[in-house]
Amino acid sequence: MKAWEKNIRKVTPYVPGEQPKVDGIIKLNTNENPYGPSKRVEEIKYDMDNLRKYPDPKIELLVDAIAEYHGLTSDKVFVGVGSDDVIAMAFMTYFNSDKPILFPDITYSFYDVWADMLHIPYERVPLNSDFRIVKEDYIGRECGGIIFPNPNAPTGILESVDFIEEIVKANPDVIVIIDEAYIDFGGETVLPLIDKYDNLVITRTFSKSRSMAGLRIGYAMANPVLIKYLNDVKYSFNSYTLNSLSIILGTESVKDDAYFKETVQKVINTREWFTEEAKKLGFRVLPSSSNFVFAEHEKLSGNEIFEYLKANKIYVRHFSSPRIDNFLRISIGTDEEMKALVNCLRQQIEAL
After folding, report:
1. Which of 199, 291, 320, 346 is the most buried (most CB within 10 A)?
2. 17-36+258-350 carries CATH number 3.90.1150.10
3. How confident is the model over 187-206, as pLDDT tens digits?
């Protein structure tokens, strides 16, 4: 080992879903929206001369649009480069206790990566046998903060507003972050609670329901004091986080609410159809309120199905983690893509 290696920050990195570089595939592995963004986004004429200038560090155009959309004042909104950037900033800002932060043992696998990188102590709290969060495990114990998605990922399971409020209310001395990356696909937001509890932060993304994963836009909503602290860390890290084009196109997306609701409903309808078809094929499908389903087959292993589908140019996500190594996370595509998936699965199962 070289002498300088002892000063290197060594972490086990997050592993994103595969982005295959081949044509003619059906890509259902990274929870992207199968429908393109709003036509308002496509029709924007961008002045390329703006690229020589730094973007607005305050991101005011987009912050104001998001605030108006949610009925908030602008000082309750923070925008970053995808919700990953926003949550990473939140970890740096809010989780500085010597007590462990809490999150589920089966959840978004970036949480422990950020915690390890930033030397934040943490504890994975087990989901129950039905893959649900146990509310009591987050109540009545000392911790440095709490974070979990709602709906959870990769399970897709939604918890109620009342359920989450009990956790927030029981932890007034720490920040509770609710990651609502998938809330638009069938869940009720806890957004009204930010005016009731000063320790609640909500994060969202444009990557799923707004069909803009390629632009990397995410945001947080909280009381103005928490947003101010988040901006303080941002300006100490990178003042110009979001590029000029993303700011403009993101703003146009927010303005087209009709298209947003139309495409979200399409995904929901297809998810419900596919869930029933998968059950007919012998799958156990967890109840999903997201743009994906989490499922295991009664006879075939998750890896067997994963490899078979991949050989047939259909990409889904398989996790080798304990408790879920037999499950597949399947993003919801177009009706045609999901029908092709069902046909492919049927062929594999009938060959048993």
Report:
1. 291
2. yes
3. 999 999 999 999 999 999 99
